[in-house]
UniProtKB/TrEMBL annotation:
Residues 1-16 form the signal peptide. The keyword Iron applies. This is Cloroperoxidase. Gene3D superfamilies: Chloroperoxidase-like. SUPFAM superfamilies: Cloroperoxidase. GO terms for molecular function: metal ion binding; peroxidase activity.
Amino acid sequence: MMKPYLLLAFVSFSYAFPTSSWDQLSHRLMETRMKRDIHGRQDPVAVVTGLTQIPDADHPFMAPGPTDQRGPCPGLNVLANHGYLPRSGIVTQADIVSGVSEGFNMAPDLAGFLSLVSIAYDGDLVTGKFSIGGPDSRTSLLGALQNILGVEGGLDYHAGIEGDASATRDDAYFGDDHTMIPELYAQMKSIAANYGGLYTLEAMKDLQQLRHQQSVQTNPTFYFVPLASALDIGAKAFITVFFTNGTYGDGGVPNEESISSFFGAQLLPNGSYQFVPERFPDNWYRRGTPFTLLDGIGQILDFYSTRDIPFGGNAGAVNTFEPLDIPALTNVNGMACFIRDAIQANVPSSVSQPIQVVEQVISSVVSVVDPLFENFGCPAFNASETQAYAAINELQNGS
Ligand code: HEM
Ligand SMILES: *[C@@H]1O[C@H](CO)[C@@H](O)[C@H](O)[C@H]1NC(C)=O
Ligand SMILES: *[C@@H]1O[C@H](CO)[C@@H](O)[C@H](O)[C@H]1NC(C)=O
Ligand SMILES: *[C@@H]1O[C@H](CO)[C@@H](O)[C@H](O)[C@H]1NC(C)=O
């Protein structure tokens, strides 16, 4: 563990340096921070099996206060509203790994991966913190909101891991990408109605396809490219696999009572919905088996290969969708390696640091991510794959 005063000295030192020294800074940062404190593989965390009622008495609901951050993820919002995560919404990887395990039985490898990319894309690599909502000076050691990738936007930040075609959130093009939209909740409910009112995986696949179509038809800047879009697909599966009362596929029921409470969708007498802070349903049971990174990638592949939801983007106008030129993704290893490579290939376009610094940072992140993916037997990263992304980015920029 690096001593706090050393870290402080190191950071203020960097402020006296011209931009050309970002190189050494980032190098040093990676060695000290990424390799030590932010893990690819998690230390063993108690694996929880068997149904457990959540929340327990130590985790009462409290509505968020004015300075508490909440954002696009109903799962993290509800955990913060019950104190399974810091109620401020300013979190570390360790907070996430233990909070999502306790509240939802998400396995440490999946939680470690999701929090790692959140810190790298939306948070602060020095403090290891990110905001589960908008930008917040509490994530940054010096309050400067200057992440090594350029900006600490929090999970709301669109160029990070927040993506288009979300279940209940608008595309960033329409202004607000993180607030639950009651009409979108009602639309999701109408799809569940086709499945006996249950939010099954099949219903969530239909929803993903509909949201994809709606974005193609209404959002000229629709951008559906991993990493964000793969996580966006995964998030639809999360609705079923985590919000179900009990274990989905093993007697658990993804009923309206549970799902509406997690989305903060309150039914009004006139039949429309309004948003209230997310809370655990009364008398609700957490899934009984951990849901792992492999499970998550398996779900993304299943959605992707059974519905018409290609990766790609609109070319600056509605209904101009160009699919990404990639090999068919037919097995879980292929999808896993594609997602791993996306972290490296799809460098956020908004970065303000010199490109070689960004590449260094990204490859350091990948070196932490790689051990998580080693069981998938991915080949070494092939830089020419970045061309697939470059083509879509050019289309979007109208060049
Ligand atoms: C482990 C760390 C997690 C991180 C960093 C994270 C982050 C995010 C982000 C950035 C989004 C927005 C995606 C988009 O724009 O499409 C999102 C959406 C979502 N997340 Fe999470 N999440 C995490 C864990 C969870 C957990 C444990 C659950 C469920 C218990 C969950 C459920 C969801 C759902 C249902 C959505 C979709 C919301 C919608 O589209 O309306 N997430 N998450
Ligand atoms: C339903 O009631 C709410 C609250 O009274 C109101 O804001 C909303 O406009 C109403 N919606 C419709 C469709 O009448
Ligand atoms: C969850 O399941 C339990 C056990 O079947 C049941 O008693 C309870 O009412 C359910 N709760 C919700 C919110 O559906
Ligand atoms: C990298 O990918 C390109 C395009 O798919 C291919 O032509 C090339 O042979 C690959 N290089 C390696 C080392 O696999």
